[in-house]
Design a protein that fits this description.
Structural class: alpha/beta
Distance between the termini: 50 Å
Low-confidence stretches: 1-30
Shape: globular
Helix content: 25-40%
CATH architecture of the largest domain: 3-Layer(aba) Sandwich
Mean pLDDT: 92
Radius of gyration: 23 Å
CATH class of the largest domain: Alpha Beta
Amino acid sequence: MIQPNQWRALTLGTLLCALASCCASDESSTEDALRPPNIVFFMADDLGYGEVGAYGQELIPTPNIDSLARDGMLFTNHYSGSPVCAPSRCVLLTGLHTGHSEVRNNWENGGWGQDQSEGQWPLAPNTQTLARVLQAKGYATGGVGKWGLGGPGTTGAPENQGFDHFSGYLCQRIAHNHYPTHLWRDGERVELEGNEWVNSHQKLKEPLDTEDEYWERYNGATYAHDVMLADAVSFVREHKDEPFFLYYASPIPHASLQAPPEDLDAFPREWDQEHYLGNKGYLPHPRPRAAYAAMVAHLDREVGSVLATLDELGLRDNTIVVFTSDNGPTFNGGTDSTFFNSAAGMRGLKCSVYEGGLKVPTLVRWPKHVIAGSSSDLPSAFQDWMPTLLEIAQVQSPTGLDGISLLPTLEGAGEQAKHEALYFEYAGQQALRAGRWKAVRRKLRQGNLVTELYDLEADPKESQDLADQEPEVLARMVGLLNSSRSPSTIFPLPGIDPQAKKK
């Protein structure tokens, strides 16, 4: 592979093999052809399959995200790494599904108070993350947004996992407030002007008198997402002359429902007849549906800002852009998944291993490689992105990954390898997809090993359990469920791992 220092060092002597009359633009074109592609990976937080216009959303405009479908490929059978935040991010960055990954559940370091320790279970020191491998091959590596794989000063902090630069939330709990007192930038705590600490899990017995009271009590002066977006754009500008990897893990639309008040006016007041009082967790809000829509629209503008920067700098053609979500839509915090058809009619939401909790919108743009307006129904998942992006970057993947490269599908050339099965586990649940079949276990904490069986081609809503009707298929699926994982001492699976306690 040609390293950045190699292509930057191209001289006139190198070009003498070409026409003697070649101009500066010819030199630039040669360098561009030799330069590995940039990688921009957007990951939303709790964005449902049906919450993007390209996937059928009718109430919330997402023109910038939709442009990726128009100019690239839309995946209809792509799955996250897990139905919750931290393990899904671990799968993405390590190429190992939750039957083999280190992080298989959310785990909190500290409590919910102002002075509690930050962070979740930290990645081990020698973890082969996507960023670490790209960094070793000369890529500038930047992370922006929500981390969730190790708090400040731990082995799992981004600067210890291959990122040259990181700006955002290290701790998922802190990210429950979109007007936090601070973010983290390159290992240093950065205070946000005009924001005071607020317990992001409050309840009201009755609505506040005016909307302004909500803004004054629960909002601050500095919206964290504006800060992180500025850092992302700066990272792209700073590294425009070398290959870069930008991992943009936006914390929205994850509750709490908080958006700049002026953004709510784009959505009808008639949507919200009642205030949300915090009875389902997170902060109260006078206009919960409008707030949620405003957050999704803000996410779309973030995507648009980065895409516009790529265009401005002439980086569009040599940048692969991926957009997806870490899991399905949430059920709490004042959100209304029914109103927005967030799961696109599928069964389950966040925390569930049914389709609605795992299947996520996924779009890829890579000019001159991915056919504009194309789509793929190939069953795939987060563990596939590490081998895919490393192959695109002309970098050898580490051994032992669970993922497969999706490059043949993206380019429409060559033979595409296929998974025998896609495996998931989380909090006393297991799921496995093999072809048209889906197996689900969801009561392991109660010691119940009963396995449900669904035919996704005939029954995409997982409404009819065929376990009794298809004993041979069921037996094969149970065998795959049992063979697809290794025991975990850190996150033991209840009812399966002997050390696991029933909860």
